[in-house]
Amino acid sequence: MKVKIKPGKLEGDIDAISSKSQGHRDLILGALCEEKTEIFLNNFSDDILVTVKALENLGFVIERKENSFLIKDRVDVKNPQIDFKDSGSSLRFLLAIGNFYGENVKYIGSESLSKRPLKELIEELEKNNFSFSQNHLPLEARGYFKGGKFTFRGDISSQYISGILLAASKSPFESQIILKSNLESKPYVDLTINELKKFCIDVKKMENSYKIKGGNLKSPGKLYVEGDWSNASVFIGANLLGSKVKIRGLNIDSLQGDKEILTIAKKFGSKIFTEDNILENSKADIRSMEIDIKNIPDLAPVLCVILAASTEKSRLINAKRLRFKESDRLFSLCKMINDLGADGKIVGDSLEITGKIKGGHVNSFNDHRIVMAACLASTFAKEEIIIDGAQAVEKSYKNFFEDFKKLGGNFVCYR
């Protein structure tokens, strides 16, 4: 799908969509319980549907309602096959869990997902009772999670650590995760630990390790997934650039790492207003800034566009992790900035941004966050913006363009 957007500010109010990060975790933990669990979400993104389908393929009986998933029961399946499509979270969270429910499990996914890092997670699982046909998709897995010690570098994917913690919650054996250096993207692991508490599983955190003993999961019955700060950052960014959007349903005390967008907005001079579960922030004067995105890689596309509202040079640093997203996001962001008339330059693991966005024609690289970032750029661009592959946004925000239109976004779609 191709989208052509005319420049213009946004104004109005919307509901924050349910957090994809929390939704994945709650659905998996709900399935691991013996009791029924109902997970309430107001938005079923493609990635969430991948996790639901994966659980169904493992034998779970899930009733899909208008705004929730009720996990009711499980039936036995033989040699299940799971298609993760393009969802890295679903893959890494379920890789150690699937064999609870099948002696031999086959995992497949998109070409893009087969290129995303998995080797270190597989190597650690193979030290602990698993065997895999190869270290990337497609692959077959045998074995059974029995706990043990798992050692990772701190700059490895936080989803590896979360995946082990989720599997360990089901196992009656003790598991220990040891980090060889400080953990990057730590807020995502903190979120996993917080969701485990809701299911009566405690994780002991030490300086560079985690200990967990599972086997006693208890369902809370019903869980309401809070609003997603990653996707809401698009509209918080739009407000920084002069739009007037009010967002309902964001938890100001959330453990989601991308709530950091508020701290960054304040550094630009934006004032934050919260009242009656509604958040709004004021316009700010965008100036040169260096932002470390080591722990907030999903904010990079929004921040990249915000910084390109100034003619001064800015930098996103510690951006190595961007190379292993839905696209090589370091490259695709740089290309987007240049195609929109500003000047982007990759320097090592950093992205330098100079000059203001004007408008232009960009490729989404099948990356949902590139689509949203380009739409954000239209709120202060001088010329129209065309996005190829705009349907990629459905990976995390299925009704994004509906909300964008509701707020005054002026665009046309071409198939």
Automatic annotation (TrEMBL):
- List of residues binding phosphoenolpyruvate: 20, 88, 116, 159, 329, 369, 395
Give the EC number(s) under which this enzyme is classified.
Answer: 2.5.1.19
Q: Which GO terms describe its cellular component?
A: cytoplasm
The broad enzyme category this protein falls into is: transferase
Major place of residence: cytoplasm
Matching entries from Pfam families are given as:
EPSP_synthase (PF00275)
Q: Any idea which UniProt keywords this protein has? A: Amino-acid biosynthesis, Aromatic amino acid biosynthesis, Cytoplasm, Transferase
Instruction: Determine the domain of life of the protein's source.
Output: Bacteria
| Active-site annotation | 298 (proton acceptor)
- Protein residues bound to 3-phosphoshikimate: 20-21, 25, 157-159, 185, 298, 325
- Reaction catalysis annotation: 3-phosphoshikimate + phosphoenolpyruvate = 5-O-(1-carboxyvinyl)-3-phosphoshikimate + phosphate
- Pathway in which the depicted protein is active: Metabolic intermediate biosynthesis; chorismate biosynthesis; chorismate from D-erythrose 4-phosphate and phosphoenolpyruvate: step 6/7
Q: Which residues form the Enolpyruvate transferase domain?
A: 7-403
Q: Which family does it belong to?
A: Belongs to the EPSP synthase family.
What the entry lists under NCBIfam families is as follows: aroA
The subunit structure is: Monomer.
Instruction: Give the protein's function.
Output: Catalyzes the transfer of the enolpyruvyl moiety of phosphoenolpyruvate (PEP) to the 5-hydroxyl of shikimate-3-phosphate (S3P) to produce enolpyruvyl shikimate-3-phosphate and inorganic phosphate.
Classification via HAMAP family: EPSP_synth
Identification of the protein by name: 3-phosphoshikimate 1-carboxyvinyltransferase
High-level lineage? Bacteria, Bacillati, Bacillota, Tissierellia, Tissierellales
